[in-house]
What we know:
- The chain is α/β, with parallel strands linked by helices.
- The chain is 42% helix and 28% strand.
- The longest helix is centred in the N-terminal third of the chain and has 18 residues, at 2-19.
Amino acid sequence: xxxxxxxxxxxxxxxxxxxxxxxxxxxxxxxxxxxxxxxxxxxxxxxxxxxxxxxxxxxxxxxxxxxxxxxxxxxxxxxxxxxxxxxxxxxxxxxxxxxxxxxxxxxxxxxxxxxxxxxxxxxxxxxxxxxxxxxxxxxxxxxxxxxxxxxxxxxxxxxxxx
Length: 162
């Protein structure tokens, strides 16, 4: 009987101490998650929005779905995290800037320069290159016409504006 009472007492003590284990604080979880996110190059755009009773909410921008999943999985492995609310957004794919082709720019330049025989032009990789001479008043009018051509820019180092 004494053995049974001793075993029962030990079981109660073990259960009491295991139940008294200190719970990981939300602030500690947040710090650990932030450290993990900063250490991983794939999660550079991700941040911790909140931690509440071990439920971690992350947000930010990921380059693709795989990156978003990776960030959520990584956070879920941090000690004390019960679950993850992944509010990360997938970054939109940027639209490439479409510039007029050199051929279209050359045609537009020919039209714009027909009244300015002292100005010579060429197009290099979408950029308008002008040489020669032009009066300041005429340059202002020509510049407005050139701006409508949507080039990648101008190279005017060979152009003298008087």
